[in-house]
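# step 3/5: fold
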Amino acid sequence: MRSRTIACLAVAATLLSPMGAAFGQAALVRHHEMADSVLVIKSKRKLYLLKDGEVLREFDIALGLMPNGPKQREGDFRTPEGKYFLEARNPSSDYFLSIKISYPNAEDRARARAAGVDPGGQIMIHGLPNNPRRDEKSYLGWDWTDGCIAVSNSDMIDIWLMTQVSTPIEIRP
């Protein structure tokens, strides 16, 4: 498993480096079709990359520690539900790559304002922690994030390569 993580890091470093940018774009065109939307089904623990309504790829995911119901406020450990877009990419996050989701949207802010709470933010799709507190295998098969959507590091590379900023994402219960 450790060699797989090292291989993932090597591929990511190559693709994210200035020298690898041209290689990464060429590889992207040849090996990865771009998704035009992302769909997350929380109850199935699945993330789907879609193009013209057809599934290009399917990934197993982990959610926030309190996965049932939509995110209501900062610190509730829930993963949001609704329509958003991929808003920013961070190759240097505390997790293996991260893509920020545009939570909170106008509906989320209005609901939080009516409840007198902070809606929270910083909801990401990301890989495993760069400095894990447990064995890599222990992150699989259970919800462990603060409200983000987590995938394996190798899956994160594919999601990174197959999406871009402004790609719509819908998160369903």
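# step 4/5: annotate
The radius of gyration is 16 Å.
# step 5/5: archive (pending)
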